[in-house]
Amino acid sequence: MNPELFLQLDRVIHEKGRLAILSALAATPELSFTELREMLGMTDGNLATHVRILQEEGFISVAKSYEKNRPLTTCALTATGRKAFAGYIDLLEQIVQQSKQK
Q1: Mapping DSSP to helix (H, G, I), strand (E, B) and coil, where does residue 101 land?
Q2: Is residue 51 part of a domain?
Q3: Side-by-side strand order, sheet with 60-67
Q4: Do 6 and 24 form a contact (C-beta atoms < 8 A)?
């Protein structure tokens, strides 16, 4: 097993809450904050913190609008986020393959 591969894992993505958010957004073009919160079982504060970190990294975009006079926050994966997530998944696959080669 090459331990170097583990050191290459993106620590921003590797945190389980952020990994869950990116996974959900990779499967759906856009999700509202409420949809993400309910889907992932997170609190508002926890989700907001993870969303902010992912947005600061340029992995997701956040849009604020109104729907029926109510605020609506939506999140979507950016091209940078999609590339980083795909690279992360590829690296995990390499780690899994190495562990199977005993």
Answers
A1: coil
A2: yes
A3: 31-32, 70-77, 60-67
A4: no
Residue 102 domain-assigned (yes or no): no
How far apart CA 29 and CA 44 sit, in angstroms, is 21
Separation of alpha carbons 83 and 13, rounded Å: 12
CATH classification at residue 91: 1.10.10.10
Indicate the number of domains in the chain: 1
30, part of any domain: yes
Q: Look up the pTM and report it.
A: 0.91
What are the φ/ψ torsions at residue 59 (nearest 5 degrees)?
A: -85, -30
| pLDDT digits 0-9 by tens, 37-91 | 999 999 999 999 999 999 999 999 999 999 999 999 999 999 999 999 999 999 9
Domain span at 88 = 4-95
